[in-house]
Write a structure and sequence with these properties.
The structure holds two protein chains of two kinds. In chain A, helix 1 runs parallel beside helix 2. By secondary structure, chain A is an alpha+beta fold. In chain A, the strands form three sheets. In chain A, strands 6, 7, 15, 16, 17, 18, 19, 20, 21, 22 and 23 form an eleven-stranded antiparallel beta sheet that branches. In chain A, strands 8, 9, 10, 11, 12, 13, 14 and 24 form an eight-stranded mixed beta sheet that branches. Chain A has a five-stranded mixed beta sheet with strand order 1-2-3-4-5. Chain A is built from eleven helices and 24 strands. The longest helix of chain A has 16 residues. Chain B is built from three helices and five strands, in the order E-H-H-E-E-H-E-E. In chain B, strands 1-2-3-5-4 form a five-stranded antiparallel beta sheet, covered by helices on one side. The longest helix of chain B has 22 residues. Chain B is globular. The two termini of chain B are 18 Å apart. Classes of the chains: A alpha+beta, B alpha+beta. At the A-B interface, helix 1, helix 2 and helix 3 of A face helix 1, helix 2 and helix 3 of B.
């Protein structure tokens, strides 16, 4: 038995070649586990080239039908041959599964009835468009005044001058969205050399210890308890999102993070009265391409480069940053939080010192020179059905509580998404924390 | 004319295709139809899968399948050393209700009984012995 997958009009098809006996069913189950992306909702099994079916196959069909039901989608069989039809009839399952003559018939039937909440009424829906990226707009709390609270100095961090005096302990249980540099440890001395990139999502904290293992650590509020998180740099969003956007590219290639931010910037310049060129953004999306970098060493004074060089200096960058565009999380779920600075807008609303606390020019970001600075940390999860009609904040809370955790990285701007629900806060103040 | 074949497998689902291939070869040599071959592949698979999954419960255990075909009928004797269990004692699966609450335990054994003309179970010499018979359609 071999199964390969393809997608026709947004419907996932498993083309089965060979017998769906107990062994074939086991292989089909494994294939399904690998091939179903988090934004797949409808599944058709093409049985045209499968002459045999047993109860093992029926069991896998039942499991897949339940999974697609969980995703508010449909499960169907197509091209069912004579003997499999006989088995389904004997087992009493003819009426349980939707059965179509051909895959085309099944896809047409599904597409005809599908109500896609991510593609609402064209006329009622406001949209912003820029550089080929289209975002549908949903109002958030437009009159709220979100601010960023910034702890520490990016300058100290980027010159690896952090000392014990710069480190604060912070509880993250109450924080919805933050990113920065942090570590867990029984003492400050233990934590210092492990300081790595971190993100907070609704009280859960994920960090990438700089212990050389490149393996992130995921902590829920329950698992951290009262253990302090040591942090040398942190940006926290204080306040709600002013607007929500829905991205649906209808394209496996998706669009880069930089394109999403560019569309947000362009839309804000035209429409948003209190736009001052800085946004905080939370994204729940489906990955089409993953590009990341990660700090390899804690930027503390005892590790500092000679001669006071910056860790992003070309002579230092290989030592300090692991750049990885190789991880393949295609079709998996990304939850990310980040800051965007729109260099094409008038940034004079903010004090230059406050602004420079937010961003730096990461030379690994090829697009950094093109009018924006982005700083995004992202967490990869798997096996979370995507549904843009759901509330972003509730869903992020649910994903961190229930999702299958895969990875956490600092995202490069070339990371690509094909679908996304995006919360945007137009920042009204940058507050430096003591 | 008779065609006989005996194979012993380790109790692993991976071995199912090998059993099916042996059945096809043996029954085809005695002139059985495609449908009869498929029926006995189904019956034997369900019996063997039941032994692997429920008899040995994931432990390693051997299953011996002895196929004996003539021009009139085929008899398949399946033996294992799992604890005594009569698959024919299983209740019929629930075939009417909705998928959500449907019990599907026993479905495989139910299918086995549908397609075989005779099924006999005995526990003898510390072995479960299940004998399946299929006769050619007149």
């Amino acid at each position: 038995m071999e199964a390969r997958s393809e997608r026709i009009d947004g419907v996932l098809i498993f083309v089965v070649s060979g017998r769906l006996d107990a062994f074939g069913a086991q292989q089909l189950g494994e294939e399904a586990r690998k091939s179903i992306h988090d934004d797949d909702r409808d599944l058709v099994i093409d049985m045209t080239d499968s002459p045999y079916l047993s109860s093992g196959g029926i069991r896998v069909f039942i499991a897949l039908k339940r999974e697609m039901k969980r995703r508010n989608g449909r499960f169907a069989l197509a091209g069912v041959g004579d003997y499999p039809t006989k088995v389904l009839a004997m087992a009493g399952f003819t009426a349980v599964f939707e059965i179509f003559m051909t895959v085309r018939d099944a896809v047409n039937a599904i597409a005809r009835k599908r109500k896609d909440p991510s593609l609402p009424d064209e006329i009622a829906q406001k949209k912003i468009e820029d550089g080929g990226v289209t975002l549908a707009v949903e109002p958030g709390w437009i009159s709220a005044r979100p601010v960023l609270r910034v702890l520490g100095s990016l300058d100290i961090l980027l010159h690896a001058r952090l000392t014990e005096e710069d480190i604060r302990t912070k509880g993250f249980q109450e924080i919805k969205y933050s990113l920065g540099l942090g570590a867990l440890g029984t003492s400050l001395r233990d934590a210092m050399p492990l300081l790595g990139e971190m993100i907070t999502l609704h009280g859960s904290m994920v960090w990438l210890p700089t212990d050389g293992n490149s393996t992130p650590d995921f902590l829920t509020p329950e698992s951290t308890g009262d253990v302090p998180v040591y942090t040398g740099y942190n940006i926290t969003l204080d306040g709600p999102f002013n607007e929500y956007f829905v991205l649906d590219t209808g394209d496996q290639q998706g669009v880069p993070l930089s394109g999403i931010y560019q569309a947000i910037f362009a839309g804000a310049q035209k429409r948003v009265e209190n736009y001052h060129g800085v946004v905080a953004v939370a994204i729940w999306g489906i990955i089409a391409g993953f590009a990341s970098s990660g700090l390899k060493k804690a930027p503390i004074a005892s590790f500092a480069p000679p001669g006071g060089a910056s860790i992003v200096d070309p002579s230092q960058i290989q030592d300090w940053f692991a750049s990885d565009a190789g991880a393949v999380y295609h079709g998996d779920t990304l939850v990310c939080f980040g800051i965007g600075v729109d260099l094409g807008s008038n940034l004079s609303y903010f004090a230059p010192d406050d602004l420079s606390a937010l961003y730096y020019a990461n030379p690994l970001n090829q697009r950094a020179a093109q009018g924006m600075y982005l700083h995004n940390h992202g967490v990869v999860f798997r096996n979370i059905p995507y549904d843009a009609s759901l509330d972003l904040n509730n869903q992020v809370k649910k994903i961190v509580a229930e999702g299958e955790f895969v990875d956490m990285r600092h995202l490069l701007d070339s990371t690509r998404l094909r679908k996304a629900k995006i919360g945007v806060a137009y920042i009204q103040a940058i507050i430096r924390e003591p | 004319m008779t065609c006989s074949r005996t194979l012993t497998i380790s109790g692993d689902i991976h071995e199912i295709p090998q059993i099916s291939a042996a059945l096809e070869e043996t029954m085809r040599a005695c002139g059985f139809s495609d449908d009869a071959i498929l029926d006995m592949q189904l019956a034997v698979e369900e019996a063997v899968a039941n032994t692997i999954l429920h008899g040995y419960r994931g432990a390693v255990g051997e299953v011996t399948i002895a196929i004996h075909a003539t021009l009139q009928s085929v008899q398949i004797r399946i033996e294992d050393h799992a604890p005594p269990f009569d698959p024919l004692s299983l209740p019929e699966p629930d075939r009417g209700s909705d998928l959500a609450e449907r019990r599907i335990g026993g479905l495989g054994i139910y299918l086995m009984r549908q397609v075989a003309d005779e099924v006999v179970y005995e526990y003898t010499g510390s072995k479960n012995v299940l004998t399946l018979v299929k006769r050619k359609a007149a």
